Amino acid sequence: MTRFVKGCSSPLVFGRWFETRQGYSKMLLSMTVRSSLVLLLAIISAAAQDRPQLPADLRLSQALRLALSNSTLIRTAQARLDQATGQHEQSRSSLLPQVNVVAGQSYLTASLIGLGIDIPNVPGRLGPSGSMDARIVVTQDLLNIANLREWQTAGSRLDSSRFMVNDAREYVTLTVVSVYLDALKAKASRDSLVEQTRLAQELYQITRDRVNRGASAELDANRAMQQVNSLEQQRQQFEQGYVATKLNLASILQARVTSEFDVSDPAAYGDMLQQTTSDPSAAIQSALASRADYRSAAANVKAAELHVRSVKSSRLPSLRILLSDGQSGSTPVHNINTYKFEGALFFPIFTGGRISGETEEAEGALREARTSLDETGSQIEKDVLTAISGVEWALKEVETSTGNVTLSRQEVELTRARFTQGISDNTELVNAQTRLSQAEEAHIGAQYTLGVARANLARAIGVAETSYPK
């Protein structure tokens, strides 16, 4: 009888055994998948719990502190700064004494035949013989211009990375202020529509009373109720918009993503900023002196210039000394003290084109760095002029919209009096209220635009982080 598996006396028994094995495998696979999902959810939950909880009333200063401490952009810039710090320390090490301890014990044999010595009746191998050496070795470059220039190059690159951290902080500040303004705008629009809806309901009640007294037609009541429903629908849309902006703000702050908080800090509008727009040339010069990205680009140019000088300096002679002192003998027990003091002068004669190639590469990097500096300067000039123009335009918009809101409110009061006195139907009143709602929305938008324009100007000049309260 044919046996398929040990212990299985027939194909039928083997089939059942195989199906059982498959069932166990599927069960184990399912348990493994479920365990992995549970572990993944636990990790995600732990990461979410590590994020800070936002207060019920989130001030701009609190938002900025959270962003500046949790931003991934700043952490990335800080990581690059740490790398540049390490490179600077590495380049400095070549200028400092190098101290090493060397110790070794060996046993040697030598072949006389291999050395060309063949003496009859004498063994052809010598040894084994012991050799021990343990000593301290100190080396120091007394003169190496190339290494000195390279250390200075690393220092300029370190300055560039440090400036880029400051630039990241400026960018994060601008982003947080802009998103906070988004939330303030959505909240102000919602609150305005809440008030407009309340007013529309009052007007509907007045209209309904007049209809009940036979002083107005049912059409007036329908028109008033349509206005209430329209404003309520807009309020719901802005309520949802407010929730969306708060979720976006919480995400940017690297906090627990929730909308269970409010924003109410008027400091985001930048009314306290003392920024002059009367002299664009002075603003541009101030920006070039304070913008971290421009200073970083200037540090990169300096680093490229120093690197060119470092490469060219590698053609110059260098002087190195070496001092070693220790014990030497056959074993650690049988040894004597020995020392060595050596000075060496290195003068490159022919390097196969290596130095000329490195020089050409370094000069190309220098031209690229200078081009980047020029582009950054042009961009800063454009940013400043655009921001100044934006602030001036936004100030005019706020002034115009403020006057328009005042006129619209007066119109609502006048048309309400006319309707109450029975001089006209409520068509004029509904239209007047619509224009008031539009005027208030335009005023809210103008205030938001002014706040963003001021933030852009602070960023363009390079003082965004210091311009808002922390």
Describe this structure in words.
By secondary structure, the protein is of the alpha+beta class. It has one domain (59-103, 142-319, 352-467): Outer membrane efflux proteins (OEP), CATH 1.20.1600.10. Helix content is 67%, strand content 13%. The protein is built from ten helices and six strands; from the N terminus they run H-E-H-H-E-E-H-H-E-H-H-E-E-H-H-H. The protein has helices at 11-50, 60-70, 72-93, 145-212, 218-252, 280-290, 292-313, 354-420, 427-461, 464-467, and strands at residues 57-58, 98-111, 125-143, 262-263, 318-329, 335-346. The chain has a four-stranded antiparallel beta sheet with strand order 2-3-5-6, with no helix packed on it. A hairpin with a 5-residue loop joins strand 5 (318-329) and strand 6 (335-346). Helix 2 (60-70) packs antiparallel against helix 4 (145-212), helix 4 (145-212) packs antiparallel against helix 7 (292-313) and helix 6 (280-290) packs across helix 8 (354-420). The model is unreliable at 1-15, 17-21 and 40-48 (pLDDT under 50).
Profile the largest sheet.
4 strands, antiparallel
- Uncertain spans: 1-15, 17-21, 40-48
CATH superfamily: Outer membrane efflux proteins (OEP)
Kindly report the spatial arrangement of strands forming the biggest sheet: 2-3-5-6
Order of helices and strands: HEHHEEHHEHHEEHHH
Structural class: alpha+beta
Write the layout of secondary structure elements.
Layout: H1 11-50, E1 57-58, H2 60-70, H3 72-93, E2 98-111, E3 125-143, H4 145-212, H5 218-252, E4 262-263, H6 280-290, H7 292-313, E5 318-329, E6 335-346, H8 354-420, H9 427-461, H10 464-467
